[in-house]
Amino acid sequence: MEIISEYQKLKEKLKSHISDSEIDKELEYFETLLVEKSNQSLHNENMFKLISENIVDVVWVLDITTQQFTYVSPSVERLRGYTAEEILKLPASDSLSPESAKKVEESIKKTLPKFLENPFAEEIHYHEIEQPCKDGSIVLTETSTRYRFNPQNNHIEVVGVSQDISERKKTESAFWESELRFKNMFKFHNAIMLLVEHETGKILDANKAAEKFYDYSKNQLCSMLMSEINTISLEEILQECEKAVTEKRNYFIFTHKLANNEERIVEVHSSPIDFNKKRILFSIIYDITIRHNSEIQLQKYANELNQLNKDKDKFFSILAHDLKNPFSALLGFSDLLLQNLRIYNIEKIESQVKIIHKTAHKTYELLEDLLLWAKSQLGKLSFEPRKVSFNEICFEVISHLKTNADVKHISIRFLESERTTLVVDVEMFKTILRNLISNSIKFTNENGFINIFVEKDSENAIISVSDSGIGISLEKQRKLFDITQ
User: Fold this and answer.
1) What is the pLDDT of residue 12?
2) Closest Cα partner for 319 from 359, 369, 356, 360?
3) Do 108 and 145 fall within a single domain?
4) Average pLDDT score over residue span 392-402
5) Residue 416: CB partners within 8 Å, gap ≥ 6?
6) pLDDT tens readout for residues 43-85
7) Is 298 among the domain residues?
8) Do 274 and 174 fall into the same domain?
9) Which residue of 32, 46, 71, 145 has the lowest C-beta tally within 10 Å?
């Protein structure tokens, strides 16, 4: 709504000074471009929601400042019995058991300062937490979270994915009840399970689910090292195995290779157990390829949506920048004419009207250039370089801006005696040159000057625009080509 409001103001201001019917056609075309830009942004947002609302795990976004969820996927109802709308109305603390709330609070104290020191690290944190359900029961979930900045309100948010691990925990606990039960469960359980010798990485045993997943027989698997199905080196695998044995870590994300060389992203939970009088690693493996790819796709659409918003803001910034000066001249001369209409003679009035007409005409041409630029941002304008005379383009751009320069008594000098031929996209080149000269006029004091000159060699030409203005600080120079600044 804010974008449309700004556009309507611009439209009315333009119509109040230029009544040419062609302007209406250009404004109508501008409206079409704006709608297409909005539709493109909406498409990416819809794709983001489509993925998050159709995966089994619960995707959520928490505003740390307000301690309120700003988004929860519909799958939360299957997990906890609450609808997404009900969760959004509750404080975040209601989604955790008291013990888990303390655990999360301690984690935030440790991890948030690291994020503030390096917001681009995108470190992912994993926790096992208890969450109350609508029926009064408790569900045990595993959450993967990361921090991010919300550019709309500058708040820090936590983006998380939660999955129910109650059954997995029950499965892991059941193994300890008896060795016989363990053997039977290991053999026939639907989860992929391996027994691994942590000193060598040798696979000691594999269940039927592992045979089916990797497409190797049990005998084949038991003759292999973990490095033969894992994409990382044996040395790295043994280091991770040691962490699992010493219980410093029991959760891993790896890429495993199947018999047909297909690679799958897996989540491995490894714990040390005593089996046949030997200390080994018991690993439960989950194929998370679909979930992993969905998270990547979610991030991709989120980044594209953010970039589209930046592009939209940049477009309106450029639009306001390029149209402000011509409209200032139009308003200034028309106000002067209105105030002195009964004082000026016909020659003076005619002179003022000519200036207004010339400025309006140049502003119309400027608007056409901006619309061409808008087309290029939507990918509808191809780059069409051709040979042109730089002298002619330069004089044309100077003539467009001469009225603004004359108001401040600034002289614009083109210091080139020879005719210079360039190979450029004319409209793009004029837009760049116009912006450079316009900025020089804006930041040059009265009675100043602007010089334009060309340095040539056999292949290239360096075009410089210098002025007697205030210059640009070193800090601002570093931000010149940053679209977010």
Assistant:
1) 57
2) 369
3) yes
4) 88
5) 390, 391, 394, 452, 453, 454
6) 555 555 555 566 778 989 999 989 999 999 888 999 999 999 9
7) no
8) yes
9) 32
DSSP 155: E
The string of DSSP letters for 382-395 reads ----EEEEHHHHHH
First-to-last alpha carbon distance for the chain, in angstroms, is 23
Nearest-5° angle of CA 257, CA 262, CA 263?
A: 55
pLDDT at position 315 is 67
- Give pLDDT, residue 49: 58
295 found inside a domain: no
7 band by pLDDT with thresholds 50, 70 and 90: very low
Which amino acid belongs to residue 137?
Answer: S
CA dist., res. 285 & res. 210, Å (int) = 9
Q: Which amino acid is at 11?
A: K
- 116-143: pLDDT as tens digits: 888 777 788 888 999 999 999 999 999 9
CA distance 181 to 207: 14
Looking at the DSSP bridge assignments, the partners of residue 142 are 128, 163
How far apart (Å, rounded) are the C-alpha atoms in residues 11 and 24? 9
pLDDT band at 448 (very low <50, low <70, confident <90, very high): very high
DSSP state of 95: G
- Domain enclosing residue 105, as ranges: 55-159
Using DSSP, state whether 275 is helix, strand or coil.
Answer: strand
Of 18-22, 183-187, 247-251, the range with the lowest mean pLDDT is 18-22
Q: Are 394 and 363 in contact (CB under 8 A)?
A: no
pLDDT tens string 283-303 = 999 999 998 888 888 888 888
Q: Which of 32, 78, 33 is nearest to 53 (CA)?
A: 78
| Buried-state track 10-20, b at ≥16 Cβ within 10 A, e below 16 | beeebeebbee
343/393 same-domain check: no
Q: Please indicate, yes or no, whether residues 13 and 76 belong to a single structural domain of this protein.
A: no
CATH number at residue 59: 3.30.450.20
DSSP label at residue 248: S
